[in-house]
Design brief:
Structural class: alpha/beta
CATH architecture: Alpha-Beta Barrel
Radius of gyration: 19 Å
Number of domains: 1
Bound molecules: zinc ion
Strand content: 5-15%
Number of strands: 9
Distance between the termini: 38 Å
CATH topology: TIM Barrel
Largest sheet: 6 strands, parallel
Order of helices and strands: EHHEHHEHEHEHEHEHEHHHHHEHH
CATH class: Alpha Beta
CATH superfamily: Metal-dependent hydrolases
């Protein structure tokens, strides 16, 4: 059965859907890239958030919402093709039911509030199409929320604008998980203060170990824990390690890397990722464990989860090359002195707890068919 590995994992962030949509790689089969349902099952994947990441370039190209619907459509078709492997989860009950049936429980996420195109009605439409997690902002600032990156121009609020607070409140009412990875520091605290449900930071590391803007400071980790939230430990090498980040910046300037091509941006990214994995100095998995241990030390073992960012990162730490590798990380945690029940919490039950608390049983309706807008009319 797909979920028989000893340490079920709830991965709170993967970008794999882009390969399915743009490259026709059926994620229900063994594919290239980092994550599919076959390798996931081998690695104990019990639940995951299939993220619809919309490159801000699509804002210009005909609509961020359009691109998001296309990714969501690919997700729906994936679930329909492989009902023996995967089942949609909209709340705690459907997540448990999928697990009990031996299937990977999959929910949908959207990475970047630009996909809403300023509309709470669209947020609701996405919800009815199965989206249960929204990463409020990606690296591009919005007029209602500042991201963690530099370069916010005039018109960008310090944190959440009144409309931003409305988005969070509406998400709470609908039963969607607020995801604060990528949010600016003030946005992070504004959203924590506004949300009536525990939140996720689905794929981040620890700022104390590497001062990357995508990592969370100790005070943020504590605030997240106090609110009942969870930070998913990311496998993204430039977030984990300053030397790895510097080397990758250098390697990207090489003629070989610059000469890589692809039929579309997803194929190009896949080739760049394969190239980087082959050429950069391997980063030991121990570096992920360093961040994980620090987060546990600061925020407690109940505030930490796993958010690989598989297929959204160029390369992975050594030993975590794809979704069949989660057990290596569990073994590493045991070596670092974690008890078995602590591994189980970090791997699965902490994120399950947030998902259950933030979604609503009343909203656990079956995945509804895509609307006319979603279907591409
Ligand atoms: Zn991200």
């Amino acid at each position: 059965m797909p979920t028989s590995a000893p340490w079920p994992v709830f991965d709170t962030h993967s970008d794999a859907l882009q390969r399915d949509l743009d490259l026709g790689q059926d994620l229900g089969t063994r594919t290239q890239g980092h994550l599919d349902l076959v390798r996931g099952a081998e690695g104990g994947l019990g639940a995951l958030v299939f993220v619809c990441w919309c490159d801000p370039a699509f804002i210009e190209e005909g609509g961020a919402a359009r691109r998001t619907w296309d990714l969501l459509g690919a997700g729906h078709r994936l679930l329909a093709r492989h009902p023996e492997r995967v089942a949609w989860a909209g709340d705690g009950a459907t997540l448990s039911a999928a697990r009990e049936a031996g299937r990977i429980a999959a929910t949908f996420g959207i990475e970047g509030g630009h996909s809403l195109e300023g509309s709470l009605e669209r947020l609701e439409a996405f919800f009815h199409a199965g989206v249960r997690v929204l990463t409020l902002v990606w690296n591009n600032h919005l007029d209602w929320i500042r991201s963690c990156q530099d370069g916010a121009g005039p018109g960008i609020p310090e944190g959440l604008s009144p409309f931003g607070r409305e988005v969070v409140t509406r998400m709470n009412q609908l039963g969607m998980v607020v995801d604060l990875s990528h949010a600016g520091e003030r946005s992070f605290y504004d959203a924590l203060e506004t949300s009536s449900a525990p939140v996720l930071a689905s794929h981040s590391g620890c700022f104390a170990l590497h001062d990357h803007p995508r990592n969370l400071k100790d005070a943020q980790l504590r605030a997240l824990a106090d609110q009942g939230g969870v930070v998913g430990m990311v496998f993204c090498t430039p977030f984990l390690d300053a030397d790895a980040r510097a080397e990758e910046v250098r390697l990207r300037t090489s003629a070989e890397y610059q000469g890589l091509t692809g039929a579309n941006s997803t194929e190009l990214f896949l080739r760049q990722a394969q190239w980087m994995q082959a050429h950069a100095t391997p980063l030991p998995m121990e570096r992920v464990l360093d961040h994980l241990c620090h987060a546990v030390e600061v925020a407690g073992v109940d505030a930490v989860g796993i958010g690989s960012d598989y297929d959204g990162i160029e390369r992975t730490p050594a030993g975590l090359e794809d979704a069949s590798c989660y057990p290596q990380l569990a073994a590493g945690m045991l070596r670092r002195g974690f008890a078995e029940d602590e591994v189980a919490r970090v791997f699965f039950t902490n994120s399950q707890r947030v998902f259950e608390a933030a979604t609503r049983p009343a909203a656990g309706v079956p995945l509804s068919p895509l609307s006319a807008e979603a279907a591409g009319s």
